[in-house]
Design brief:
The protein is α/β, with parallel strands linked by helices. 26% of the residues lie in helices and 28% in strands. It folds into two domains: 3-119, Rossmann fold; 123-203, Immunoglobulin-like (Sandwich).
């Protein structure tokens, strides 16, 4: 049920694997290191103890711990009745999964991914290349002014922001200011009355779940 939600945000789903030995492999560790976020599902395993508390899969806890050590964005989806674990994993914010109220869990996951997208900031690269070749000679011009606007899906433009254009070799030209990801941008360069504009769309990097 979760894959279509993640893909709807424009993210790539990279799954781990069920591990009989309960220890994650080097391949899974590398997948987490290469990803931007992790959603860990702590589901019931076996039978409950005398207090009605279930254990969960150790390898999922190890995945979450690996993500923490790699400073990734994380959310735990913990099934009701599962041991809260404590320590480095258990003290973090989590989403409750109740089989009888799955819709509430889905809503919280959507809100979490949406928040990740809203706070994600990246550098914007200017395209296309033929436009870049025209801009390069102007970078040292003191009259060069660069502004950008975030454009909503219904075509409205938000307030204009001022930034600079910087050259990063061998990457190309970028806006100096870090900008929210997953938006449409209208970038305008002004120099003594000469104006060029372009619209670009950027997607958030892949997510590991």
């Amino acid at each position: 049920m979760i894959y279509p939600i993640i893909k709807a945000f424009g993210d790539e789903v990279v799954t781990g694997e069920e591990l009989p030995g309960e220890q994650i492999t080097d391949e899974v560790i590398q997948k987490i290191a290469d990803s931007d976020a992790l959603i860990g599902f702590l589901t019931r395993r076996g039978n409950p103890d005398a207090g009605g508390v279930w254990k969960t899969h150790r390898w999922v806890i190890e995945e979450i711990t690996t993500a923490i050590n790699n400073k990734k964005k994380i959310v735990e989806v913990r099934e009701t009745g599962v041991d809260e674990q404590g320590g480095i994993v258990g003290d973090r914010q989590h989403i409750i999964y109740d089989e009888s109220a799955r819709d509430k869990c889905i809503v919280e996951i959507i809100k979490t991914i949406g928040k990740w997208h809203s706070i994600e900031r990246i550098k914007l690269k200017l395209l296309p290349e033929d436009c870049i070749q025209e801009i390069f000679p102007l970078l040292r011009n003191a009259d060069l002014r660069c502004t950008y606007k975030i454009m909503t899906e219904d075509g409205e433009e938000r307030a204009e922001s001022v930034t600079k254009v910087v050259s990063i070799n061998p990457g190309g030209l970028f806006l100096q200011k870090m900008c929210p990801a997953s938006h449409l941008y209208k970038c305008t360069l002004n120099i003594r009355g000469s104006t060029g504009s372009q619209v670009m769309r950027l997607q958030i990097p892949s997510a590991f779940i």
